[in-house]
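Journal club side-thread
Mid-discussion, someone asked how the predicted structure for our own chain would compare to the paper's figures. Pasting it here so we can look after the session.
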Amino acid sequence: MDLRLFHPTGNPNSKPKVLDYWNSRTGLFACRFLEWSGSYNDNVKRRLLGHYRLYQLYKKRRSRGPSALPPVQGYILQYRASHWIKHYWYLALSRLPSMFMPDPGAEMYLLNKILVYQRAPVLYEFLENADMDFEQAFNKALGQINNPEFLHPIVEKEINTTIKEIIVKESPPTKDLNGKDKGVFSKKQVLILFDLLAQAESIESLPIEKAENHRAISQFLHAVTGRSVDTWLDTLKDYQNGDLYSFNTRAERTNLIATITGISKDAHAAGLRILAGEAEKKIRQLRRKG
């Protein structure tokens, strides 16, 4: 993760080293401290970072016990359970000073309340996509929050639409007659898929540059990964006109190498040495470009 994403822009008095130290903290105590002390509410960027850090911790602790809810939905509900304490405690302390001068802290607490309650789909989408491409998900969420529409009251039609979208995203997949998730490959189908790939002398690249193929590609990727078709449609649209391995800055190259390194390690551990070798070959190519 490029920590420069969270540096204040246009602030000559900022101390990046100090900010980077705290922004890089991922431990339970550090993240809880930053949340309850209000540090994550310094600005919109740090607020999104705070939700990302807390969500990662939630997923780790959640794995210790079963839950019927999707991880993102569970996190948002858990956050709501304690949000009112932090929110009203801060407002009680800041009410008198804010009567005489603007209080940026109050602005962020209220904005976060809107994000967690009224605009939860924005937070949901950010957390769901951040693990695949953090910078892309982060910039999209940032744009949505900074849009004036973010503060507009949600009318009944929007509420109904939002509820339907969340139900579609969060409801467990429907089952077919064999008890398999509908539209998603079974465990045996996934094993057969990898066996077929191993037997093929060569395989073509996904034609993501052609928009007319996106629906079929998204349905196939949904079958392999279980991620929604709409999520894949958005991802294909983002990469339609670009190279999967393109980068503009050294930080973007570093993030790209880290992404491919994760694939290489998992493939090697699973015994897929050829796939791991191809990933390592791509990493060497990217390093030479820098």
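Post-session note: The CA atoms of residues 48 and 138 lie 7 Å apart.
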